[in-house]
Amino acid sequence: MIAVLTNIFGLPHLELIEDALQDTFVKATLQWRKKIPENPEAWFIKSAKNRTIDLLRKVRADQVRNDKISHGAASIHLNDLFLDHEIEDSQLRMIFVACHPELAPEEQLAFALKIISGFSLKEISAALLTKEETIKKRLSRARKR
Questions:
Q1: DSSP 8-state symbol, 78
Q2: How confident is the model at residue 24 (pLDDT cuts 50, 70, 90)?
Q3: CA distances from 25 to 19, 125, 138 (A)
Q4: Is the pTM of this model over 0.70?
Q5: Taking every pair of C-alpha atoms in the chain, what is the biggest distance, in angstroms?
Q6: How does pLDDT run across 27-41, given as a tens digit for each residue?
Q7: Which of 7, 12, 113 minimizes the C-alpha distance to 60?
Q8: Which residues fall within 8 angstroms of residue 114, CB to CB, at 6 or more apart?
């Protein structure tokens, strides 16, 4: 799901996409107790996409407010790492991002386990025999790069 939404909204919004997916999981847990939809995967993708759009609107509105306050301070625009025609497959794109040479090998591994495989911080730290805080810092550095 992260790979699909990242393909739609772009890699710079990765953290926001993760938040949207968590919100959608909570929503699904509450709504699906009563009735599971006919096509759960389609429901989930649509709901996660709509939640991401809502969060993007909120971020943009906050940016507009901040720009008005700071009297038009220059905003930083990040370029997408890939053009649409370069890599079509969403998951393959995420694998290339996780293996980016600017990332240290331990950052690549933690990022791949979290983003591509969906493991929790606790699971990753247990597998790598490190502290959760260390994994959290590695992921933070990888996202920034």
A1: P
A2: very high
A3: 10, 23, 25
A4: no
A5: 50
A6: 998 888 888 889 999
A7: 12
A8: 121, 124, 135, 139
